[in-house]
Amino acid sequence: MRKPETGKTGELLLASASPFRRKMLEAAGVPFRVVPAEVDESALKRSLAGKVAPEGLAEALAAAKAEAVSGKFPADLVIGADQVLALGDETFGKPHDLIAARAQLERLRGRTHRLLSAVALARGGRVVWSKVDTASLTVRELSAAFLDEYLARCGERLLGIAGAYEIEGLGIQLFDRVEGDYFTIVGLPLLPLLAELRARAMVQA
């Protein structure tokens, strides 16, 4: 984790188009503007394949997004975030269709996986602080009938989510056990981020 640097200048920008991260920050009363990052995530993942642990991959993705936007808005403080699903050292991407979504769920069935949520702050084109938090989730032994109904009800919205579940909705029925911070599970280590923003006087202390 990179160490903090204090001092406030410019606006707070969110380098993500994720509606979940936007809603979390809005609900917390954080003033910010959305500027989605243009990062080739697939190329970055290929370049890091076999070289970093899943935690390092999550941090690298968050940092790349923060730095990409920060390079365009150097006076502002930019939040980058990403999440990696890991089963052991194997990482899961977003399923490209419902057949792939089912295959992911069948792979996770009866096993415990990790969600690694990373957040990075960048200013002047470089990361000045970052944090990776982990949650552990155990998928229950799912029946074929349940998977059929689940995929039919949730449909294509699962295609934008690694692991093919939204824990804040019907996806909660997939699990026997969930250990970890709720905000980390839905994609942003919000409490450490808020503490850092207070230290930088970007939100009220």
CATH class category name: Alpha Beta
Number of strands: 7
- The CATH topology assignment is Maf protein
Strand content: 15-25%
- Tally the structural domains: 1
> What is the assembly state of the chains in this entry?
single chain
Could you describe the largest sheet, including whether it forms a barrel? 7 strands, mixed
Average pLDDT metric: 92
Our Rg estimate from Cα atoms comes to: 17 Å
Q: Output the number of helix runs.
A: 7
Structural class: alpha/beta
Percentage of helical residues? 25-40%
CATH architecture grouping? Alpha-Beta Complex
Outline: globular
Low-confidence stretches: 2-7
H/E topology pattern: EHEHHEEHEEHEHH
Distance between the termini: 22 Å
Write the layout of secondary structure elements.
Layout: E1 12-14, H1 19-27, E2 33-34, H2 41-48, H3 54-70, E3 77-87, E4 90-92, H4 98-108, E5 112-123, E6 126-139, H5 144-154, E7 175-179, H6 182-185, H7 190-199
Can you walk me through this structure?
- The chain has a single domain (12-199), classed as Maf protein, CATH 3.90.950.
- 34% of the residues lie in helices and 24% in strands.
- It has helices spanning 19-27, 41-48, 54-70, 98-108, 144-154, 182-185, 190-199, and strands spanning 12-14, 33-34, 77-87, 90-92, 112-123, 126-139, 175-179.
- Helix 1 links the parallel strand 1 (12-14) and strand 2.
